[in-house]
Structures are given as C-alpha cells and as structure tokens.
C-alpha cells in the first residue's frame, strides 16, 4: 500500500528530539503524548500508545520506530476485509455511509471494480436520491465496472430504492449489492433517522441486516471524525471504516482514535482518484506514514 508511505511526516524527528541521548523524563512522555494528539490520534489513543512505548522503550532503541510498532499493534488481530457472501447463495449486502464530501460514491465504484476483477457480479443501489447528479455519478461507475444499477428519480424515497435493489439483486442472483446513501451531517437528527430507516428497509427486504456497514472517513477530517464514527455507529452499527484522501499531506491519525475508542476496524484505504486507488488497510504502512 503505497499511499500512506507517501504522506508527509516530520513527526519522527520531533519524537527523536524528545529522547536526547536516549534519556527520558516525565516531560519526554508528556511531549510524546502531545505530539501524537497533534497528529489527530486522539487523547485516549495517544495515552494508550505512550503507555506501551513507555513499557517497552530501552535507551538503545529508535523511539520513532518503536512508536510505529505500537501504532501498528493497535490494529493487531483485525482480519483483512472481504466483501461478504450472503446466506444460501443470496447477495452479500454492503451499506456505505458518511458525511458529504468524503468520497462515498467514488469508494463504492472502486469496491465494485475490485469485486468485478475477482469475477463477482455486483449490484449498486442509488439510495442517495437528494444530491444532484448522485445517481448519474453512480451510473457512470456502474457502466465503468460492469455493475448493475438500481435507481429512481431524484427525490424518491431512499428506502424504496434500497428495497427494490435488494429484491432485484436476489432475483438476478447477484453476488454483492452495495447500497449508496445520501451524505449527511452526523449532527442532523432527522437525517440520521432517515438513515436508520434505510437500514431497516434493507433488513425487511433481505430478511437480515446488511452484512457490512462501511463508514467512509476523510483522512483530513481531524478530531471531528470520532464524533462522526460515534453517531453513525449509534444509527446503523458501523462495522468498518474506509479511509479516503490519504494521497496528500493528511496522515489519517483519526482512525487510530476510532479503533481505540470504538473498536471499529479500518478495512480499506483510498489513495487517489483512479479506479485502482483503493487498497486493503496495512497497519504497518499506515503507522509509518503517520510517523515518518
């Protein structure tokens, strides 16, 4: 995964400067915690990483390398993400949520492309019926990837689109159905209630909840990302995070906070606009991109 390795750093040098000659003081650990918080990893995650670094550090060690190891260890045990298979040959259902501007629709297109190269048939539900041209944008990705699109006119009931998409995917014997949803501010209660309704409709149509609910998080979002993750998890039980826009100077430290505080794994990383610029999350590459 090349994207995280390209992200701008400088944090490694600041960490090393806290350990002159390998010596440590209480100020060293406070400084390390502050450096991590400034990298958007969040107070709880920063305290957790510092505690583990403190327990393992020896004067001969490179403290920056040790921090990398401990950041990567935060994600230990998270299995690689695979698009689900539904029971009894029915479609696996993936619901994709997030705030406006995170790259949700593009992420869906990239996931569809990955699945199509694996030989799996893919359906897309255009349940974002509010944003202008949202259905058209998803349709472009459907044409590009060979996926089947289910959509209605702008302003239609998002739940109705999701219901039709589930029944259509089952009738056609699709392998995976990906349900797009309208981007919404996590602070807007009526919009979050509507998102809950879409999930309920999927469950009614399929006879089970979505197999995966992926939250798309912009790597530049900072500490607001933890509030987003909390709100969306309360509403629709998020099962994984897709971190987008990790192709510039953003380091995406917020996902460390999401993993530490909410226990939600990071499953995929977007590193550009190209169809292939989506990769499985690599904890060590991410940790190096965060620190170096």
Description:
This protein has 292 residues and is α/β, with parallel strands linked by helices. Strand 7 and strand 8 (278-280) form a beta hairpin. It has an eight-stranded mixed sheet with strand order 3-2-4-1-5-6-7-8, sandwiched between helices. Helix 5 crosses helix 12. It is built from twelve helices and eight strands.
Outline the fold blueprint.
Elements: H1 2-6, H2 11-17, H3 26-38, H4 43-56, H5 63-73, E1 92-97, H6 104-117, E2 122-127, H7 134-145, E3 148-150, H8 158-172, E4 176-181, H9 189-206, E5 212-218, H10 224-236, E6 240-244, H11 254-262, E7 266-270, E8 278-280, H12 283-291
Parallel strand pairs: 1-4, 1-5, 2-3, 2-4, 5-6, 6-7
Antiparallel strand pairs: 7-8
Helix pairs in contact: 3-4, 4-5, 4-11, 5-12, 6-7, 8-9, 9-10, 10-11
Q: Could you list the spans in which at least 5 consecutive residues all have pLDDT below 50?
A: 1-9
Percentage beta strand: 5-15%
What characteristic shape results from the CA principal axes? Answer: elongated
What's the pLDDT, averaged over the residues?
90
- Fraction of residues in helices? 40-55%
SSE-based structural type = alpha/beta
Widest beta sheet: strand line-up = 3-2-4-1-5-6-7-8
In total, the number of strands is: 8
Q: What is the CA-atom radius of gyration, in angstroms?
A: 20 Å
End-to-end C-alpha gap: 15 Å
Number of helical segments?
12
H/E series, N to C? HHHHHEHEHEHEHEHEHEEH
Mind summarizing the main beta sheet?
8 strands, mixed
